Structure formats: structure tokens, C-alpha cells
UniProtKB/TrEMBL annotation:
Protein name: Cadherin-12
Organism from which the protein derives: Electrophorus electricus (Electric eel)
InterPro entries assigned to the protein according to its UniProt record, in alphabetical order: Cadherin, Cadherin-like_dom, Cadherin-like_sf, Cadherin_CS, Cadherin_Y-type_LIR, Catenin-bd_sf
Transmembrane residue ranges: 604-635
UniProt KW keywords: Calcium, Cell adhesion, Cell junction, Cell membrane, Glycoprotein, Membrane, Metal-binding, Repeat, Signal, Transmembrane, Transmembrane helix
Lineage: Eukaryota, Metazoa, Chordata, Craniata, Vertebrata
Gene Ontology annotations for the cellular component aspect, listed alphabetically: adherens junction; catenin complex
Single GO term (MF): cadherin binding
Residue numbers spanned by region Disordered: 22-47
Subcellular location: Cell junction, Adherens junction; Cell membrane
């Protein structure tokens, strides 16, 4: 059979969290036990507000964070001794999250959590409970306050906030030498369980290094690590919570460890240690100071540990030669120290390839002593160096000595030497030389931006024999002075998220200036003196760059949208130059990953590097393009007025162009009717020479009848056409057909009836061409002239 469900008393005595509400007057302070629990009497009181003896009760509940069950999570139970199980008591809940996060069964007092909770977001909730009469709503118990704590689970892995790390340790260090220290933090509750207990271990990098599992200190684990064998080590460190137990969450970081050099390798010559130099000839061609050979020893160390000093061991030839060190490549330069007139040497000659069958014949070698006498010869002066290199800063004042050359006559007479500069190598006379001392000084102001290097030739001449001269190349490097202050590499504008964390790097900045790298390309960054009290941001100086780091959390756009951070940039030149640039920081809304969501229009374009000026320029270009397009469309749509063209076949007495200001003006081009009145008077002027008449000269026709109505009909027809044409502008123009215009032969036209008064000869009309053919037939009888 199934077990029966527990009743109210059994449920109260079961192992579930129960909060017993203390009896008494509402608002009265009831004594609590030192353990945070209140006591009550078991003497059941009547009336509800009498003080009774009580047992131990709890004043806090626990709820598991990140609960993913399908039903609401059970938190605990409220109960009062006045509740007899008859549903006469109603339980109420108020405070943080009451009704939204936590709910209570008003009859049973059971408390449930409606959604999953995150301890890292809020670790506990303070609520108040009270028991009231279900009918009267009068309180049966005073209001009691209790706490619901969110019980932590291991849902956050350890994180290294400063990784990846870079460290250095000298080579050949003993075991246990300190290298660096790493630190990981866990957001879980360190006071509950092992969720925040972090243990460090090495995943990659053994057996060279070790890590302290508790402190994260990295030390050497292998002795005598040699930089010449391996210089760089990459160590992978793991931080695991739950004390490193199985099931714990882990995070990793990388440490790049470099072995620094120590002087643990001696210089070594090559296997073949015998050097052969140019021998002294019969003439004094090898003078004192002449380079006769070089030698180099190799040192596996670097930097100053690889610098070498050369010396000659006293013995054969020790007094004849000297050796110096070339600082650039650490070679030993062997030079001739003194020249003697006589040398004595013992020479040995031997076979290169011996045959062992003939060893009994004796040694296959012979020795001889030779004497060499050096004869003096008049030779040019000899410079102490094959070439000279000098450095001078630009804008150096005139007359400043930048260096000197030295030459000497090694002949027996030892003639004095005079110095000069070949004018072809210094056309602008930037330099001058002391003819006796050989010191070179500036003669003009030098500018590195114009000429960074001058190559001149110095001539040494013997006083006793000016024909004997020597030349040497002198290279003068014009050094840049640190004259330009540094500035931002680009116009930086950045943003900070409203939910930015403390110590978060929001921007990495760099700088530039116009000086050469040797005098101004190492930069340092800091806040100005007045900005040291900035409580929002600070600057963390890296290697030639810097990071902008937040000093607080809780940035709000409503409080302040823009922050302007002054940054002092100083270069490493001499004298040091510095400038102050301002970094604009905008407060923007971001998602949980720190990506930009909402911000001002300017900040949206920050990822692509568009500043305020660039945005304004883009908007102006768009507006100009729109105006050009609108004007172009308007011009295309504008209709041009068409000119009223006169038909080539339309012959009228008076042709009026209606595109003028008005008809009948003085500039109207009218046909001269005087031609019909007196054709003989202007016949020569009206004769068409560009069109050949269709017919030749014909006999004069009879005079047209004066009663012909053809001309009247023609004029009436044209008048009717003009009157019916409603589209011909101007509409108020008056065309006077009885007036031919100003300047004609006759002042006005006679009446039509006047055709009968005189007889005209219209034979000349046939000579005007085909355009006047119609007019020609109108003035003659139809029966006589029709073809």
C-alpha cells in the first residue's frame, strides 16, 4: 500500500526550513538568541497575543542559485503556533522580490522562488512575513523580518585579469629562482564551499619551471638553462577552482619567459689560427699605421658580454705591430707600429706532399736566413685612418670644431704637412679646415632636412714637395635635434560602456613626432599634474604605448555623456619635448560582451575612425550632389520656346515674326510693295541672281484687267487665315496690310480699285524664280498664261 501523506504536524517536524512567527504585539521587539534564533513558550496561550515559551526557530532561508527545474523552487515554510490547520490564518509576504521573485501560499505558508537567481548579481534578499486573520485581516503575529540567501554554486571559472604575462630570468640561474607571479580571481562565494578556492598548475613548460599551487609564484625548476641553447620559453598556467578537484572549472594564461644573457662564453678563434699578412716590400710602401690584416674571435654571448679586447703577446714581431678593436664588428685590426730599415728572418721551405717511402733520405725541408734592407722613397703623406666619420647637430653655430684629421710624412726628411678641402666636394663651403692642425669646423648653418650627410675630401700636401699629396674621405652626419613635440598617432575618440568594470582597458594609444628615431621615437604617457585627482580614468604606460584604464564602475549617459581626458606625451630625445593631447571618451550603451549598442551619432562611427569633421564634410558633399541633381532635372524639364518659322512656299505681302516684342513694329521685315508700283525704278536691286529663271525673256503680256478680283481674293484668304489662327502670338497685335513699313519707295498703298486707273507691266515677275510664280499668274489673265 502507498504511504499516506504527512499531516501538518509531521510536515512541521520534518527536515524542511520553517520560520515560526513570534507572538506578541505588532511592532514589539522580541528577544533573539545569540545564534540568530528567537525563543517561544510551549504554554499554549489563548487570545493570540499572550507571550508563550517557544522553541528554536530560523530567521533565514537558503535558495540554490541557477536553479533550472521546471517547477518553482521550494524555499521554506512560514508557520505560527496560532495556525490550527483550519485555514483560519493567512500568511503575507513583503520586501525585496516579494510577488515577483518569491511567492507564498497564503494558506500553508510555503515560499517558492519563481525564477532562477544569480548570487553574483544579488547574494541575498530581505523580506518581511506576517500572519493575519483570514476573515478580519487583523494581524495575529507581529511582522517578522527574515533573509533568503542565494546559495552559491560553482558557475564561474577563474580568470587571469593581467594575462598574457612577460617575464625574464638570467640564464644559468639555480633551481628555485623567482621568475614572476600570476593571479587568477573567481567570482564565486569564497566563504561557501570550494567554488572560489583556486589551485595553480603548469600545463606546458615543464620541467623548466614550476608554480606554487597556492600563491601562483613561478620559479625555475631546472638548473643551468643556457640562453645560447634556447632563449624563449612559453609556459601555460592553469587556475582551477574546487581546490583542483575533478569537476572544477579552470582558466589558463600564457607566460613568455626570456633568458637574459650572462657572460658565460669566452671568445674563440677559428680553427685556423695562423694569419698571413702582406710582407714589407723593398720600398717603404707599408707605413706606420697601415692596416696589414684583421682577425676575429667569436663570442656566443650578446651585448656587452660579447665585447672583445685584443693584444699581442710579446715575442717575435711584438714590437713591430699593434692591434686595436673595431667597435662595430669586434674585429682585431693589426697595424704597423714602426718601420725599420733592415729586417732579418729565418725561412723554412718544405714539400707539401711527402712520400713515406723516402723518409730515410733525410728531412724534406731546408732553412735560410735573409736580410731585407728598406730603401727610403719620397712618398705622399699618410693619414692615420683610411676614412673619417664625424657627427654634428644641425643649427650648430659657425666656427664650431666638429673633428680633425691627421697625416704625417714617414720619409726620412719628415716634411711638414698642410691640409685643405677639395672644393669640388664642398661647393657651398659648408666647412673649413685649419691648414696646420687639420681641425674641421662649420662655415655655414647646417640643416638636416636639406642635406643629412656631407661627403668631403681632405687633401694633405707636403710642404717640401707640394706634388706629393694624399686624399682621405670625410663623412659628416648632420644629426637631428629634438625640435618637434610628440602627438597622438591618430585623432583618437573612444567610448566606455555604462557597465564597464573597474580596471578595464578601454583604449590603447600611441604617439608620433617628426624627429628621427634616434632623437624622439620613445614615448611615455601620463596624466597632467592637475589630472592626477581624476576619479574616472587613469593611464597605464606600456612599452611605447599606453592604455586608458577605468577607475570606477557605473558610468551613466544621463549623468555625463562625454569625458575629456588630458594626456601628456613626452619623448626620449634631448632636450625632451612634451605636449598635451585631449582624448574624448563617450559613454555608450553596450551588450554583455562589451559591443556598442546605442550611442550618439559621432560615437557610432568611431570603429571606422570617422571624426566630427569627417562627418560634416561627408554631409556637405551629399547636399551639394543633391542640389546639382535637382538643377540638372529642372533644366532638362524646362521647355524651350519654339520660333515661328515661315514656310519657304508661303509668299505673303507682309511677313511678321511673332517671336518679336509685337507685330507691326519698326523692325518688322515687310515685303516692299513699291516693287509692284514702280518696278522699273528698282529693278536692278530686286533682280535675283542666285536662281535661274525657268523661262527666258517673253514678249510683254497684255495689261491685266483692272477688274480682276484675284488679288483681293488672295488678300482676303490670308486675312481670314490670320484671324482664325488663335495660337499665333501676340493676340493683341494689329497687322496693318495697307502700310509697307518705314523707308519704302512709296509712303502708302493705294486702294485696290486703283488697279483700273493705270496699266502695269508685270513681265519682270517671271525673272524672280519659281517662288514668285504664283504671284506672276495672279496678275495676268488665266486664259493667256496658263501652261
Amino acid at each position: 500500500s502507498r504511504p499516506r501523506p504527512p499531516n501538518a504536524e509531521e510536515e512541521l517536524s520534518a527536515a524542511v526550513p520553517v520560520l515560526l512567527l513570534p507572538p506578541g504585539r505588532a511592532g514589539r521587539d522580541w528577544p533573539r538568541s545569540p545564534a540568530g534564533m528567537s525563543t517561544a513558550s510551549q504554554n499554549g496561550g489563548s487570545g493570540g497575543f499572550q507571550r508563550v515559551k517557544r522553541g528554536w526557530v530560523w530567521n533565514q532561508f537558503f535558495v540554490l542559485e541557477e536553479y533550472m527545474g521546471s517547477d518553482p523552487q521550494y524555499v521554506g515554510k512560514l508557520h505560527t503556533d496560532l495556525d490550527k490547520g483550519d485555514s483560519a490564518v493567512k500568511y503575507t509576504l513583503s520586501g525585496e522580490g516579494a510577488g515577483t521573485i518569491f511567492t507564498i501560499d497564503q494558506t500553508t505558508g510555503d515560499i517558492h522562488a519563481l525564477r532562477s537567481l544569480d548570487r553574483e548579481e544579488k547574494p541575498y534578499y530581505t523580506l518581511r512575513a506576517q500572519a493575519v486573520d483570514i476573515d478580519t485581516n487583523h494581524p495575529l503575529e507581529p511582522e517578522s523580518e527574515f533573509v533568503i540567501k542565494v546559495q552559491d554554486i560553482n558557475d564561474n571559472e577563474p580568470k587571469f585579469l593581467e594575462g598574457p604575462y612577460t617575464a625574464s630570468v638570467p640564464e644559468m640561474s639555480p633551481v628555485g629562482t623567482y621568475v614572476t607571479k600570476v593571479t587568477a580571481s573567481d567570482a564565486d562565494d569564497p566563504t561557501y564551499g570550494n567554488s572560489a578556492r583556486v589551485v595553480y598548475s603548469i600545463l606546458h613548460g615543464q620541467p623548466y619551471f614550476s608554480v606554487d599551487p597556492k600563491t601562483g609564484v613561478i620559479r625555475t625548476a631546472l638548473p643551468n638553462m643556457d640562453r645560447e641553447v634556447k632563449e624563449l620559453y612559453q609556459v601555460l598556467i592553469q587556475a582551477k577552482d574546487m581546490g583542483g578537484q575533478l569537476g572544477g572549472l579552470a582558466g589558463t594564461t600564457t607566460i613568455n619567459i626570456t633568458l637574459s644573457d650572462v657572460n658565460d662564453n669566452p671568445p674563440r678563434f677559428a680553427k685556423s689560427k695562423t694569419l698571413h699578412f702582406v710582407s714589407i716590400t723593398q720600398t717603404q710602401s707599408n707605413n706606420v699605421g697601415t692596416i696589414v690584416g684583421t682577425i676575429k674571435a667569436h663570442d656566443l654571448d650578446i651585448g656587452k658580454n660579447a665585447e672583445i679586447d685584443y693584444s699581442i703577446i710579446p715575442g717575435d714581431g711584438g714590437a713591430m705591430f699593434d692591434i686595436t678593436t673595431n667597435e662595430h664588428n669586434q674585429e682585431g685590426i693589426i697595424v704597423l707600429r714602426q718601420v725599420r730599415h733592415k729586417y732579418t728572418h729565418t725561412l723554412e721551405a718544405s714539400n707539401a706532399h711527402l712520400d713515406p717511402r723516402f723518409h730515410g733520405y733525410g728531412p724534406f725541408k731546408d732553412m735560410a736566413t735573409i736580410k731585407i734592407t728598406v730603401m727610403d722613397e719620397d712618398e705622399p703623406p699618410v693619414f692615420t685612418k683610411p676614412s673619417y666619420t664625424m657627427d654634428v647637430y644641425e643649427d650648430t653655430p659657425l666656427g664650431i670644431i666638429i673633428g680633425a684629421v691627421t697625416a704625417q710624412d714617414l720619409d726620412a726628411g719628415s716634411s711638414p704637412v698642410r691640409y685643405s678641402i677639395d672644393w669640388k666636394s664642398d661647393l657651398d663651403s659648408f666647412f673649413e679646415i685649419d691648414p696646420v692642425k687639420g681641425t674641421i669646423s662649420t662655415n655655414e648653418l647646417l640643416d638636416r632636412e636639406s642635406i643629412a650627410q656631407h661627403n668631403i675630401t681632405v687633401v694633405a700636401t707636403k710642404v717640401k714637395n707640394p706634388v706629393q699629396t694624399s686624399r682621405v674621405a670625410v663623412t659628416v652626419h648632420v644629426l637631428d635635434i629634438n625640435e618637434f613635440p610628440p602627438e597622438f598617432a591618430i585623432p583618437y575618440e573612444t567610448f566606455v560602456c555604462e557597465g564597464a568594470k573597474l580596471g578595464q582597458v578601454i583604449q590603447v594609444i600611441s604617439a608620433k613626432d617628426q624627429d628621427l628615431p634616434m632623437s624622439g621615437q620613445m614615448f611615455s604617457f601620463r596624466l597632467p599634474q592637475e589630472g592626477m585627482k581624476n576619479k574616472n580614468f587613469t593611464i597605464k604606460d606600456f612599452d611605447n604605448t599606453a592604455g586608458i584604464v577605468t577607475l570606477r564602475t557605473g558610468f551613466r549617459r544621463r549623468s555625463q555623456e562625454i569625458y575629456r581626458l588630458p594626456v601628456v606625451i613626452e619623448d626620449g630625445g634631448y632636450p625632451a619635448q612634451s605636449s598635451t593631447s585631449t582624448l574624448t571618451i563617450r559613454v555608450c550603451g553596450c551588450d554583455s560582451e562589451g559591443s556598442l549598442l546605442t550611442c550618439s551619432a559621432e560615437a557610432i562611427f568611431l570603429p571606422v575612425g570617422l571624426s566630427t569633421g569627417a562627418l560634416i564634410a561627408i554631409l556637405l558633399c551629399i547636399i551639394i550632389l543633391l542640389v546639382i541633381v535637382v538643377l540638372y532635372v529642372g533644366v532638362r524639364r524646362q521647355k524651350k520656346k519654339e520660333t515661328l518659322m515661315t514656310s519657304k512656299e508661303d509668299i505673303r505681302d507682309n511677313v511678321i515674326h511673332y517671336d518679336d516684342e509685337g507685330g507691326g513694329e519698326e523692325d518688322t521685315h515687310a515685303f516692299d510693295l513699291g516693287t509692284l508700283r514702280n518696278p522699273k525704278a528698282i529693278k536692278e536691286n530686286l533682280f535675283r541672281r542666285d536662281v535661274k529663271p525657268e523661262a527666258g525673256s517673253t514678249p510683254r503680256p497684255p495689261i491685266a484687267s483692272q477688274d480682276s478680283a484675284d488679288i483681293q481674293s488672295f488678300i482676303s484668304q490670308r486675312l481670314q487665315e490670320h484671324d482664325d489662327d488663335t495660337s499665333a502670338p501676340p493676340y493683341d497685335s494689329l497687322a496693318t496690310y495697307a502700310y509697307e513699313g518705314e523707308g519704302s519707295v512709296v509712303e502708302s498703298l493705294s486702294s485696290i480699285e486703283s488697279l483700273n486707273e493705270t496699266e502695269e507691266d508685270f513681265d519682270y515677275l517671271s525673272e524672280w524664280g519659281p517662288r514668285f510664280k504664283t504671284l506672276f499668274f495672279l496678275f495676268f489673265k488665266h486664259g493667256d498664261f496658263c501652261n
